[in-house]
Amino acid sequence: MPKRRRVPLRTCVSCGAKTDKRNLLRIVSGEGDRVVVDRSGKRNGRGAYVCESCRGSKGHLRRDKLERSLRAKIDKTEWNSLVEAMTRTSEGVS
């Protein structure tokens, strides 16, 4: 009988839902305090995870929660580009 592999669970920073790591989008605060969407899930830096329902709905993801978990300040232009990148990812556009 084959062994079952352990599936890593992560928590969404917005709603607190625990789900499979592969179903979440990773946001990373890395080089020079830039906050970017990490589609590969392997970038260096402090990461936070956002679930599908939170990234699709505008206003559900709050900037202060993301800043707290990443331990980084996110300015308005960076926040707008991050939200745009998350909605593109949830629609399936790369």
* Through-space gap between termini: 39 Å
Global outline: globular
The count of helical stretches stands at 3
Unreliable residue runs: none
Tell me what portion of residues adopts beta-strand conformation. Answer: 15-25%
Number of domains: 1
Radius of gyration: 14 Å
Helix percent band? 25-40%
Q: SS-based structural class? A: alpha+beta
Tally of DSSP β-strands? 5
Largest pleated sheet: 3 strands, antiparallel
Q: What fold name stands as the CATH topology?
A: Hypothetical Cytosolic Protein, Chain: A
Level-2 CATH architecture? 2-Layer Sandwich
* Helix and strand element order: EEEEEHHH
Descriptive overview:
There is one protein chain. With 94 residues, this protein is an alpha+beta fold. The protein has one domain: YlxR-like (Hypothetical Cytosolic Protein, Chain: A, 2-Layer Sandwich). Helices cover 30% and strands 21% of the residues. The protein has helices spanning 52-56, 63-70, 76-90; strands spanning 9-11, 18-20, 25-29, 35-38, 46-50. It has a 3-stranded antiparallel sheet. The chain has a two-stranded antiparallel sheet with strand order 1-2. β1 (9-11) and β2 form a beta hairpin. The longest helix is centred in the C-terminal third of the chain and has 15 residues, at 76-90. The radius of gyration is 14 Å and the shape is globular. The protein starts with 8 loop residues before the first strand and ends with a helix.
